[in-house]
Design brief:
It is built from four helices and two strands; from the N terminus they run H-H-H-H-E-E. It is mostly helical and 134 residues long. It folds into two domains: 62 residues; 61 residues, Orthogonal Bundle (Arc Repressor Mutant, subunit A), CATH 1.10.10. Helix 3 packs across helix 4.
Length: 134
């Protein structure tokens, strides 16, 4: 009988230690969550302020781009030079098949039309460089 009681006591000690470790993790995670929520509040406030200032200047908020377009723009920005539609396809993980290339080219052309990208030579796309301040 003593042997069972010793096993139970040993198991109780182990579970107590585990429970204490979990309490410490919960405390740490609670602090991390609070910090993340504070950062989100600050970012939201900053965003709202920027939108208000843009509205006052008459520039209005920039139109949000769908994720596919943002991914393409990030690739072109990271490249630092002009890219062709096939190169963009490969960089975003698409096969360079005609259907993907043409779809990507259409997205690139739309961004040229919006003034976000330029096409300095046929089929090569780069970010529009802002005009120097006067």
């Amino acid at each position: 009988m003593r042997e069972f009681l010793d096993k139970i006591e040993s198991r109780q000690q182990l579970v107590c230690e585990t429970a204490e470790q979990l309490r410490e993790q919960i405390t740490r995670l609670t602090e991390e969550l609070a910090a993340a929520e504070n950062t989100l509040k600050r970012l939201q406030s900053t965003r709202e302020t920027i939108l208000e200032l843009a509205a006052e200047d008459g520039t209005g908020p920039p139109e949000a781009l769908p994720p596919g377009y943002r991914e393409i723009l990030a690739v072109i920005e990271a490249a630092g030079e002009g890219l062709r539609a096939k190169e963009v396809c490969r960089a975003i993980g698409l096969a360079a098949e005609p259907r993907h290339t043409e779809n990507t080219r259409a997205k690139l052309k739309r961004q040229v039309g919006r003034g976000i990208l330029t096409e300095p030579e046929p089929g090569v796309f780069t970010l529009t460089t802002p005009a120097p301040a006067a």
